[in-house]
Specification:
Length: about 120
């Protein structure tokens, strides 16, 4: 078991440079507060969330491609366990990015609801 863990750690560490060319995008600095935001603030927030969505999609495509390139480069020298470990690391990074993207979208959508409710009360 210890040998497997050591091998997995080595694989993860050697796989890490594969993703060096795929910088993780920063989430938008600020989600507008729907209770106080202007329409311009909300539109700027929407633009930032859309840009973040694109950046996450680009990041995921990049790590997917880099994983495949690494597997192709390893060819027959790559042990099945190494390939599996590399795929697991990529899947964790992929899923974490999508989860964070969804969290940002959910927070923004909640503020859109607050904004709309506030403006409906004014009309």
């Amino acid at each position: 078991m210890k040998a497997f863990l050591a091998m997995a750690a080595v694989t993860v560490l050697t796989a890490a440079p594969v993703y060096a060319d795929c910088p993780y995008p920063a989430a938008p600095n600020k989600i507008p507060d729907g209770a106080t935001a202007t329409m311009e603030d909300m539109l700027a927030g929407q633009k930032a969330v859309k840009e973040y969505d694109k950046a996450i999609n680009d990041y995921v495509a990049c790590i997917d491609k880099e994983l495949q390139d690494s597997i192709d480069k390893g060819g027959d020298k790559l042990k099945p366990e190494q390939k599996t470990d590399m795929q697991k690391v990529e899947a964790q990074k992929h899923n974490a990015a999508i989860d964070q993207e969804q969290s940002v979208a959910d927070r923004f959508n909640e503020q859109v609801k607050v904004f709309k409710a506030r403006n409906d009360k004014k009309n």
